[in-house]
Amino acid sequence: PTFGAGPLSIESHLLDFKTSILNRTIRIDFFEKLREEITFASADDLADQIQNDIRAARQYFKSLKHIK
Q1: Is the dihedral of CA 60, 58, 10, 49 positive or negative?
Q2: What is the DSSP letter of 58?
Q3: In this predicted structure, what is the pLDDT of residue 66?
Q4: 31 and 12 in contact (C-beta within 8 Å)?
Q5: What pTM does this model have?
Q6: Consecutive H or E run containing 51
Q7: 37, 1 Cβ separation under 8 angstroms
Q8: Contact 39, 4 (CB under 8 A)
Q9: How far, in Å, CA of 46 to CA of 35, rounded?
């Protein structure tokens, strides 16, 4: 919502993934909700939040390694 209304879409950040998948069909599985949707005052604020989300996601997946 930070950049205005548009068609429904999902933007995903694939951690530590370097292969180009442009114009490819992929499957996304949801494991944990990190936060509610937020409108940010600026692109810089959004970028800062994305970095926070990445840290939270890494912590979540790290915690799964301890589950047997």
Answers
A1: positive
A2: H
A3: 72
A4: no
A5: 0.75
A6: helix 43-64
A7: yes
A8: no
A9: 13
Answer yes or no: are the C-beta atoms of 13 and 50 closer than 8 Å: yes
Cβ atoms 41, 30 nearer than 8 A:
no
Task: Specify the pLDDT at position 5.
Answer: 76
| Tens of pLDDT, residues 4-62 | 777 887 788 889 999 999 899 989 898 889 999 889 999 999 999 999 999 999 999 99
In angstroms, what is the C-alpha Rg of the chain?
14
User: Is-contact 10 28, C-beta < 8 A?
Assistant: yes
* 14-16-19-23 Cα dihedral, nearest 10 degrees: 10
Among all chains, which residue has been given the structure tokens 């442009």?
Answer: 22
CA angle 13, 2, 60 (to 5 degrees): 35
